[in-house]
Design brief:
single chain, about 45% helix, alpha/beta, globular
Length: about 500
């Protein structure tokens, strides 16, 4: 047996040595061991933005593929070009207003600003990184990255593999995907096309696909593995920008604390009986919670609010609902309340905002106070065994708030978002990566998350600013743009070495 193993090892030694040499050579050449080349939806050959054939020097995006008009970028001029990157939030930023804010405050000796918005709904950091690299052809002066909500929307390579092939094949390909040599061979194969293909139009990006259900069963260690890709993609963009002489501004993303986690799964290795018992204990805690507030602990998608709930055909609205304001942010201004007019709200939304109003005012009877204590005791027992269970952390936050401990509630709301196993909003996990990365790479950071929390009573961000888990109300975006303009202007005023550029 030993002699057979020795023979196998000797036979494989030359191949292993060759592979090690290839890996070293590719590393010295700066080649990353990334999986873009074989990722579902993330083919680097696809052109997300390209030269506009209708206007020399101009560019046009290619990522909407007929869903809506593409973004056209005028030829470069003497203005300071600011390019925004991100998902649907960034896509919805009023970039013309941002440009106006920048130019209104611009010192006379500085060039005017031009703002180009390349936000694309549904795109996570992997897609954005591909677009970012191609968009450097626009010669941006400043690149702004605002994202963190979309890392669990499209599957990517790992979950594409899970849907095909046998377990051994999947394991082999997944292991190979960590090798630079594997990706060099894939790229060489993809580029080895017939000569006539050179005249063809470059491939369009694959259509965005909603793959969220594929992530619901992740354990938190798997969640962190995937989120490592978010940091890697953001780091790649920082490095690409620096190599091209562009400045990078990382912006933390704002999320709704009052939206419950989307996936709360026990740790890897938990047996089925224990997992079922955990769910039963959570249901028992919910049954102890005051009946009128149980809507804060959703049972399924049907219990959650969506953006469409704010924009329904108008209908008469009770005066007590129309008068609701919840908590006004500091310096709210005349645009507050930021949400759509109540006559456009769905019946579900009207009931939910009324529920939130009572919750935020801590409206409780004596019997309801006793119910909160009973529910909190059950939740505390769960967290003693499962301290990172997102749904239990969220439940404890609601109990803490009703008990009058807003500081504890704020901490638990943030922890609940952080430990969501398949998050659909940014959290301290993703925002923390951006904060750390800014320091590690020496790039600028504007902490929009901290700014939003500082404006809200108790530091808890809710529906006063947000229409769902991650999208700001349209009117709430304008104060954000004013602050973002200040961050961009401060970055523009600094020379690359940190000296005053003026």
């Amino acid at each position: 047996m030993r002699s057979a193993l020795r023979s196998i090892c000797f036979a494989l030694a030359p191949a292993a040595a060759l592979l090690a040499a290839c890996e070293l050579a590719l590393a010295l050449l700066g080649r990353d061991a990334h999986s873009y080349g074989v990722a579902h939806g993330f083919d680097p050959r696809a052109r997300y933005i390209d030269a506009d054939p209708a206007q020399p020097g101009a560019f046009v995006t290619r990522y909407y593929a007929g869903e809506q008009p593409e973004v056209r970028v005028a030829p470069r001029d003497e203005r300071t070009r600011v390019v925004l990157f991100g998902g649907s939030n960034t896509e919805g930023f009023p970039h013309a207003f941002l440009e106006q804010c920048l130019n209104d405050a611009r010192p006379s000796q500085r060039p005017a600003f031009e703002v180009v918005n390349l936000g694309r709904r549904g795109y996570g950091s992997a897609r954005i990184a591909l677009l970012f690299e191609q968009a450097l052809a626009l010669a941006p002066d400043i690149c702004v990255f605002y994202e963190g909500h979309n890392e669990f929307i499209e599957r990517g390579f790992e979950l594409e593999l899970a849907a095909r092939g046998n377990a051994l094949e999947r394991a082999g390909i997944a292991a190979a995907a960590h090798l630079r040599t594997f990706h060099a061979l894939v790229d060489a194969w993809q580029s080895d096309a017939p000569d006539e293909s050179a005249a063809r139009e470059p491939a369009l990006p694959e259509k965005h696909q909603w793959d969220y259900d594929q992530f619901r069963a992740l354990t938190y260690d798997q969640t962190l593995e995937r989120l490592a890709g978010f940091r890697a993609n953001a780091a790649r963009m920082c490095d690409l920008a620096r190599a091209r002489g562009a400045r990078m501004l990382l912006v933390t993303a704002i999320s709704n604390d009052l939206v419950a986690p989307f996936a709360s799964n026990p740790p890897r290795g938990t047996d089925a009986a224990s997992a079922a018992a955990l769910q039963q204990r959570l249901r028992a805690a919910r049954e102890q919670f005051p009946a009128r507030y149980r809507g804060l602990w959703p049972l399924g998608p049907q219990d959650r609010l969506h953006q469409k709930d704010w924009w329904q055909p108008p209908s008469p609205v009770p005066s007590e609902v129309a008068a609701l304001r919840l908590r006004a942010p500091a310096d709210a201004g005349p645009l507050f309340p930021y949400w759509a007019q109540p006559e456009h709200w769905s019946p579900k939304l009207r009931a939910y905002i009324a529920l939130l109003d009572a919750f935020l005012r801590r409206e409780l009877s004596d019997s309801e106070r006793a119910e909160v204590e009973a529910a909190a005791a059950l939740v505390d027992a769960i967290l003693a065994e499962y301290p990172e269970h997102a749904q239990a952390l969220y439940a404890r936050a609601t109990c803490a708030y009703l008990r009058g401990d807003a500081a504890a509630a704020a901490r638990d709301f943030r922890a609940a978002a952080r430990y969501d196993c398949a998050p659909r909003k940014a959290s301290d996990a993703t925002n923390g990566m951006l904060r750390e990365l800014a320091g590690a790479r020496g790039v600028a950071l504007w902490d929009a998350d901290a700014w939003a929390r500082a404006r809200m009573p108790d530091g808890i961000v809710g529906y006063e600013l947000m229409s769902d888990e991650c999208h700001l109300h349209e009117r709430a975006r304008r104060p954000l743009m004013i602050e973002l303009a200040r961050a961009i202007a401060a970055l523009d005023a600094r020379a690359p070495d940190g000296a005053d550029a003026r």
